[in-house]
């Protein structure tokens, strides 16, 4: 099976240098739920339930948790690293 860099599409040679890039994005709950202060608790829960019922299970999962795993070439590894460290270098 020929593998390619997930970012630039460059072919990754067998026995050559490749990097496995793993990332997780997990929804962070800060303890607050945005509600309309005029709504009762029941009305608020009804709203949340009706919002959730519009989404499929997959969509809900994607909003809460996303996991990535890619193979990338050395050049793309450098680019990704640069991107992630941009704030620190400013
Ligand atoms: Zn690449």
Descriptive overview:
- The strands form 2 sheets. A two-stranded antiparallel ribbon has the order 1-2. It has a two-stranded antiparallel sheet with strand order 3-4.
- The mean pLDDT is 87.
- The chain has helices spanning 41-53, 57-64, 74-89, and strands at 3-4, 11-12, 19-26, 65-72.
- It has a domain at 3-30 and 57-89.
- It is of the alpha+beta class.
- Helix content is 41%, strand content 22%.
- The protein is elongated.
- It binds zinc ion (ZN).
- The site of zinc ion has 8 residues, from helix 3.
Question: What is the fold's blueprint, element by element?
Answer:
Layout: E1 3-4, E2 11-12, E3 19-26, H1 41-53, H2 57-64, E4 65-72, H3 74-89
Antiparallel strand pairs: 1-2, 3-4
Bound molecules: zinc ion.
